[in-house]
Amino acid sequence: MSEFIVAFRRLAIPYWKSEEKWRAFALLAVIVAFNLGAVYFTVEINLWYKTFYNVLQNYKKAAFLPVILRFCLLAGAYIFLLVYAQYLAQMLQIRWRNWLTDKYLKEWLNHKAYYRINFDGAATDNPDQRISEDIDSYISQTISLGTSLLSSVASLLSFLGILWILSGSLPIPLGAHSFTIPGYMVWLALIYAVVGTWVTIRVGNPLVRLNFDQQRYEADFRFSMVRVRENSESIALYGGEGQEQTHLMGRFKRLLENFWKIMKRQKRLAWVTYSYSQAAVIFPLLMAAPRYFSHQMNLGGLMQTADAFGQVQTSLSFLVTSYATIASWHAVINRLLGFSKTMDRLESTELLPGTKCMCAPDKVIKIESFNVSLPDGKRLVKDLALNIEAGTHLLITGPSGCGKSTLIRALAGIWPFCEGTSTTPESCRIMFLPQKPYLPLGTLRNALCYPHSNGCGPEDLVHVLERCGLAHLIGALDKDDNWSHVLSLGEQQRLAFARILLVKPDFVFLDEATASVDEKSEADLYKELQDNLPCSAVVSVGHRATIVSWHSEALTFQGDASWVRSSLAGKSLGIRA
Q: Fewest C-beta atoms under 10 Å: which of 170, 334, 357, 567?
């Protein structure tokens, strides 16, 4: 319980100390006031019960309509407070969610945590689901349970005295003697609630873990379907529908099996809670009946006592009636806390723990004693020494799987399994192009300017599209579409080269960035780099012999972590082989 309280405080306190705190506290104060007001009118309605049933019992026809009118006024005020308490609670929920989502997105995107989380030993599953769904569930359930608990406490304090007075004393004969229990209905309500709570906890406790797992299985299943949608063309060409069906149903089967466990556990819990709630209807009438039939109270007093008992018993049974929600809430808090701990660990851990990174005024990237490995420890590159000066055109070659692309990731500073010394020039623009470019959702203009906003003029965009063989897309610059599906992979690679011409970086790293274009287009793209970026260093990873002529040096990996750097002196830049 103490660990759970610490976890809850860790998730909740930052918002209430943020720049939003005054608005949040103001909303909370009004919500609390409205809920307390609703409790006040509940007390008034309880007093109304006595008057109403006494009017019925005594056949006071003239008093009937005024009593009904009073109920309408009380009920109207009660409904008004409940409606606006709910509305303001939703307002607080959306403001809190907006703030917390922004915070979690920053933590996820900063320090490249969204990428590094894949290499974390205790990987957090489906971070997207934790941000999009778990935050909403956590906040809505926190507010709902908080307001319910507040109403329960206020109702308990309000009706406890009423029930104590109404229930009177119960004489208990014991042989020749007898003793009385003052306020016996209060003690009965307490015993009733304690027994119900104990049974509920024993039956419902496994739901916490089951709900935690259910959220994970749901997210895994949804992610698998998103993967099918994103790779629909490849799956269609392979004819992999059967394999995908098997895989998806395998994910769904785990979800289904866990849901059956939840159903069975909730069925047991439902037996307890429904039986408990229905017994609470008749239990106070049975307990108060002796005093009624002995003429110690009238019908109005009996109904008022039953209602007061119900209010006290409901308040004391908060845990019983809310246990399923509390179990789900507990699971959501555990998931969010796990995500927060992972983000904190990634933030406090160096991105490249074994690498010494320095900055230098010279326009040269220096790599010394650089080792690159796989996560399992297998060495890909050993003791690499490399200087990349301005104007250098370096080709990295070698057999597939020897670590060429992994080296590019290490030079980009996102591969954690490396060590050595890297020196990067100050105030230089460095650009990395993967084999499959990333095109964000939105307009083609945004995709072309990515990762920057629309900071480029229309003339510049038109110019680079024409130079990269994409003139047919000029009219679609402001069209909103899923461009990674609209454009072919070759067109996407030409679009990535257009980005280079817009940014004009000092160092360009191309990881098989022309593998999907034809040889003539490849030559045209490299010529554009040569003409427009004559002083920039270009480092290419590739297998095609056609790109050799555009480079002056080669770094060849042997496949056993060794490497050879050689000059391509026989081939002049700009002369195709």
A: 567
* pLDDT at 570 > cutoff 60: no
Strand order in the sheet with 430-433: 430-433, 507-511, 537-541, 393-397, 553-557, 563-567
Residue 564: its H or E element: strand 563-567
Burial 38-60, CB ≥16 within 10 A → b, else e: bbbbbbbbbebbbbbbbbeeeee
pLDDT tens for each residue of 243-283: 888 888 888 899 899 989 888 888 888 888 778 777 777 77
Q: What's the half-sphere exposure (Cβ side, CA atoms, 13 Å) at 200?
A: 24
Buried/exposed 430-460: b ≥16 CB within 10 Å, e otherwise? bbbbbbbbebeeebbbbbbbbeeeeebeeee
Selection from 394, 427, 426 nearest residue 408 by Cα: 394
Evaluate whether 555 touches 394 at the Cβ level (below 8 Å).
yes
Spell out the domain ranges in the chain: 2-348, 354-567
Q: Which CATH class is domain 2-348?
A: mainly alpha
pLDDT in tens, 190-203: 887 788 778 877 88
- Rounded Cα–Cα distance for residues 10 and 27 (Å): 21
**Which residues lie below 8 Å from residue 176, measured CB to CB, with a gap of 6+?**
none
Question: What is the spatial distance between Cα 23 and Cα 95, in angstroms, rounded to a whole number?
Answer: 9
